[in-house]
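Section 3.1 - Work completed
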Amino acid sequence: MDSRDVVGVTLIAGLVIFMIGAVRWRLSYEHPDETSLPLMHTDKWRRAWIHIWMLVAAFVTPAGVAGIATLPGAGAFAAMAATVYAIGSAAWVVSLAFRLTIVPWAAERTATTGQIPETFPPFDAWAESLFVIQMAASYGAYALLGAAVLAGDLAPTWVGWLGVGWGVIFLVGFALTRSAGPFSPPFWAHTYTGLVGVVLLATAG
């Protein structure tokens, strides 16, 4: 297995690992805190399963994106994509750590006392801002990765145009709609990279 295969498998694995956890997500977790936190307490092991898989993917996919920058013909755009994606993933890792520690604590307190801890909402807003950084960085990295394909010979041209278009359209859409729109589900941050992984394997040697 050459380096191109390794990168392709890593990118695909990042998407698969993320989805193993994400498929158990419930939309009711996104309801107002008064109703979602008690449910999160009831589902604490389900949520732990979801977020642990997401956390693993937050390391695997960035490793794959960094690997793209090492392939022959990758160029500067690929290195920039890897940097931007890594910054977003770092923010996401911190946000996931918050979801695995502070959120369960707040959920237990809410379920026990019927009151949301006063310190929780501002910290929750802070964690949400880290999620925003991650999604914006992912879409920006998509556009840069697409540009890297167009500037070099990493993959077919259509993959490059798809990356540029996907990144720009989703970044604008996310900026306009934020968490209320179709561009916010975090699996999007692993989808184009997973597709690139498939293409790298399909066009290898």
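Second construct:
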Amino acid sequence: MADVRTRVAEAFDRADRLDPVLGTYLGRFTEQAAAAAEQLDAAVADGDGAGPLHGLTLGVKDVFATRDAPATCQSRVHDADWWAGRDAVPVARLRAAGAIPLGRTTMAEHALGRPDPALDFPVPRNPWDINRWTGGSSCGSANGLPAELFDVGLGTDSNGSIRIPAALCGVTGFKPTHGLVPDGGCRPLSRSLDVVGPLARNVRDCASTLAVLAGRPDTTAWRTDLRGARIGVPAKALEESAQLSEDCAAAFAGALEELREAGAEIVTVELPEVYPLFAAQFITLLAEAFELHGAGLRTRWAEYGRPFRRTAVLGGLVGAPTYLHAQRVRASAAASLRERFDGLDAMATPTWPTTAPRYDDPAALGTVSWLPGLWSAVGFPAVAVPMGFGGDGMPLSLQLAGLPWSDFGLAALADVYQSNTNWHLRRPDLAAGSLPAAVPVSEPQASPGDPEKQRWLAAALRDTGVDVDDAEVAEFTGMWGLTSMLFGFLPELPVDQGPLTPTLPPL
């Protein structure tokens, strides 16, 4: 294996060739990484022990503070002095274990929505087809992996923001149990949902990185087969409401057969929590995002990108009773899901219902799905691994979810599937000379709607202190229609039932 200095230099050389099209980096730590590589090589030459992640190269989502540069969250609205000159706790742990941060990776602004091409930031491209979306919000931490720009991407996940880009870019992404990894120095989006986790080309690299992030030795009990494992499949929910494409459904059926052949018992389970949790998740995300960004939206509206501001502002219309009701639904559903896991080692679904949409297909870009958010709502761990390709040549992904604190056992299950397939070994054609020129991203267009509803929405937003132009309101009235519809999916609960948020058993 090449020395660390050589590997770092080669990674930056690939970035010189490929990053201008892929849009992986917001900024690179060229000098700092070279110096760190030299120190690691010198330490080994002197006989000092190597850390568990010795020489691992790292792409850091721009939501994390690093001592090398301030975290901007890919936004013009940020505090450059926040944690200035310091590493976020996850970054510090990885660095202490021998990992080398190579740079800040692109993301959806403040980890919500999609990057706005009107802002002066790179637009991340899918390495399998640069005319397609990477998934968000950990965009660059995913799309740099197939290009071998780094070994591991560090991301965050509040509603699938690790698993969706992993799925669409054909890599592995791990959302750990809520609370397993400390998040000091990571800018929040939704405080009760956010988790920190790794993306990599395979499960084992995710697991070794996650162990360091969690501050524990990597003692994962890797398996050679799945004999004795029971994996639940919510077949009815998938058929009735997941809206899987034909390619995705076929690939998922093939993945289940692979799991059976490895020795797992596949059992059908009910999942009545789908719609209540989908509603509670989205309501929580919006309300908590507005709590963090409401002041900025009131005073600096035009400086935010359109995708972010048009989503986050709706949280201002979520009243306290609705928000608190959503938290009780999350807690109740988490308790019922723990009971449904009795006798199961994991539940399996696709990670996302389709392959990556094209940037010039607004309808497909607006797809929403309960598949990833279900596990964010209750804080359970979930891992996304490649499970094949659609007819368009784009990746598809299998998701395995487990009980709280079963993270490393879940990794061992996923690793058996991955070891028995080769989807994660495939690479896109990324020869620099073959990459077509980047194309502009289409702007959202106002859709016809009820003028009365639009006037009501504009007035309601102004009541929160956010003054939005009526013409722009017309472009996201539909999003508010979806949000308000979700209120009706929150089931009635006894007034004395359960805590306000999901309570996870102790580690």
